[in-house]
Write a structure and sequence with these properties.
583 residues, alpha+beta
């Protein structure tokens, strides 16, 4: 392998690639992003994000700016064709520190993520460059890319000019290049699952200047009408999306005809008050790649799994992939961890992504019933279920959504105890700093591992060897005090390397209690805020042994690249910037 030009090459500048580049850039990893499209696409595809993914954007330092351009805390509902509400989901609790249901306009999101990359001189973006070929050995990946004339998103392989070909070398290559991934294709990886025959017409609208065309459509509606199933999605900035299911005899040409589109949207809006930005008939797939890793080459996002749009989790699954990969690549590149930890990427992410796909297919089946008798039974079932104790709360709080936890025996960390929290995402409440400031928990944990001591300085429960190991992993040491539980009366000793936080809301204290974590115990968090393991003070051998055996960290790897940036980091993004401002 020739000299390394970049530590990681990311292929694809969609939400997955942008998130991965930001997370790696913030951790000081040198990145090249190759995007085959010469110009920004500028139209929406994804429309939704949740609290877990906003938390990931928080780790990337962009969440507040992105959330400022979203419809937050939105209500989602299933309604009949006449508008009668069958069921609603409107959770207002924020266990992850962010609103649970949020609707976005994807160009705003991508614009903010790409602008954020300008903070990192060690992250380079090159548009109009398509991957032609690559090969790898034990040290890295050699990648050939060439100038591309682009294709328009989702329309096949880009044409390239061989006279512009260049070859670069990287430690790792990650294909975030969508459902038609050239990286996955070059690896010969197939996808397994189902392609559905139902066709839908998607219509993206923009209210004309000075017109409030969508004020009467405040909520996300699944219109369960057997004559014409519809999805109605409000978006920020005067945007709105409708999706209409086609009947078997209807053709794409007929449905995309301007008169047909006008007739369909006239059910809900005045066609004179809106501009049609896009109209397209599409089908959808529920498929997962057979393999997500081949040596130093990995795939993520739609390249690894494609989720039907009926719960809005396609983009979010890719964002979760990026979060999982970013810290593991950093552990390898900065801390000498064994590249074998990348095997856990697929074992951790595949079950959750597949569960999201299955839930989406279930909701598709509920919404798209066109048999009147079955639809009537569905309507009775949904409207009855929401009135049943426990079951009604389960629906209203969307508890059918797959929980952020890993399958037993398939993750990096200690084995999960009975009712244990190992392999689960810790909640993110607001906490109080020693000087009386309120902060989100993650903003005080840093970008690496974290050791929480419940009421104790966690360093005092660890041996010198364990402390040295954890410090090589850029570990943050934190003491969590219950409300009113801070020590008083005497100056502390050696507190300069420990973050003191008070659980003034009681949320962490309640979580500790449910997890059977007692005062004096330790909790080790991975950089993605999943629990690696817990231990009682003085009994940390199993915890430290698991870190050594599973990560095999050596010494910190010397690098000339930018060191990780601190949390929190004000980035000064212009949240009012619009995608059309880009060159």
């Amino acid at each position: 392998m020739s000299a390394i030009d970049y530590e990681v090459v990311v292929v694809g500048l969609g939400p997955t690639g942008l998130t991965l580049a930001n997370l790696l850039g913030r951790r000081g990893i040198s990145v090249l992003v190759l995007e085959r499209e010469p110009e920004y696409y500028g139209l929406a595809r994804a429309v939704y994000t949740d609290d877990e993914c906003l938390r990931i954007f928080q780790s990337a330092g962009v969440a507040d700016e992105l959330a400022a351009q979203m419809n937050l805390d939105s209500t989602v509902q299933w309604v009949r064709g006449d508008g009668k509400v069958l069921a609603q989901f409107n959770q207002i609790d924020r266990p992850m520190g962010w609103p649970v249901a949020n609707f976005l306009y994807q160009p705003y999101l991508e614009n903010g993520l790409e602008r954020a990359l300008e903070r990192y001189p060690h992250v380079e973006v090159r548009r109009g460059r398509a991957v032609v070929d690559f090969d790898q050995d034990s040290d890295g990946v050699s990648i050939e890319h060439a100038g591309s004339r682009g294709t328009g998103y989702g329309r096949g392989e880009a044409s390239t000019d061989p006279r512009t070909a260049e070859r670069i070398c990287a430690r790792f290559l990650v294909g975030c290049d969508g459902g038609r991934s050239i990286v996955r294709t070059r690896l010969g990886i197939d996808m397994s699952g189902t392609s559905f025959p139902e066709r839908w017409l998607v219509v993206d609208l923009k209210a004309r200047d000075g017109v409030d065309a969508f004020r009467h459509l405040p909520y996300f509606d699944f219109v369960c009408d057997p004559d014409l199933p519809i999805v109605s999605c409000p978006q920020p900035g005067g945007h709105h999306r409708f999706e209409f299911m086609l009947r078997a005899e209807q053709t794409a040409e007929e449905m995309e005809d301007p008169d047909t589109v006008r007739r369909h949207i006239a059910r809900y809006v005045d066609p004179e008050e809106v501009e049609v930005l896009r109209k397209l008939v599409y089908t959808f797939n529920a498929v997962v790649a057979d393999r997500w890793r081949d040596g130093r080459v990995l795939i993520a996002g739609d390249a690894a799994h494609m989720t039907p749009q009926f719960i809005g989790q396609g983009m979010n699954s890719g964002v979760r992939d990026a979060d999982n990969l970013s810290w593991k690549l950093t552990a390898i590149l900065r801390h000498g961890a064994d590249p074998a930890i990348l095997d856990s990427y697929e074992t951790e992410r595949r079950p959750h992504a597949k569960a999201m796909i299955d839930l989406s297919v279930l909701n598709k089946n509920i919404v798209s019933l066109d048999n009147r008798m079955l639809a009537a039974a569905r309507d009775i079932g949904l409207s009855t279920a929401v009135r049943v104790p426990v079951l009604g709360d389960w629906i209203r709080q969307a508890k059918m959504k797959p929980a952020p936890k890993f399958r037993r025996g398939a993750y990096l960390g200690l084995p999960r105890r009975l009712c244990g929290v190992e392999g689960r995402l810790i909640p993110q409440p607001e906490v109080r700093t020693y000087d009386g400031r309120h902060a989100r928990l993650d903003d005080r944990l840093g970008l690496g591992f974290a050791v929480l001591g419940y009421g104790i300085d966690p360093r005092r429960a660890l041996s010198a060897d364990d402390l040295a190991l954890l410090r090589r992993l850029d570990t943050c040491f934190v003491t969590i005090f219950p409300l009113g539980g801070r020590p008083q009366g005497r100056p502390g000793e050696g507190r300069d390397d420990v973050v003191d936080l008070e659980d003034h809301t009681g949320a962490l204290t309640r979580w500790f209690r449910r997890a059977r974590i007692r005062p004096g115990d330790l909790v080790v968090l991975r950089p993605d805020h999943y629990v690696f393991g817990t231990a009682t003070s003085g009994a940390t051998d199993a915890l430290s042994a698991a870190l050594r055996e599973q990560l095999r960290p050596l010494t910190r790897v010397d690098t000339d690249h930018t060191p990780p940036l601190p949390l929190p980091l004000p980035i000064g993004l212009d949240s009012a910037a619009r995608p059309e401002e880009r060159a």
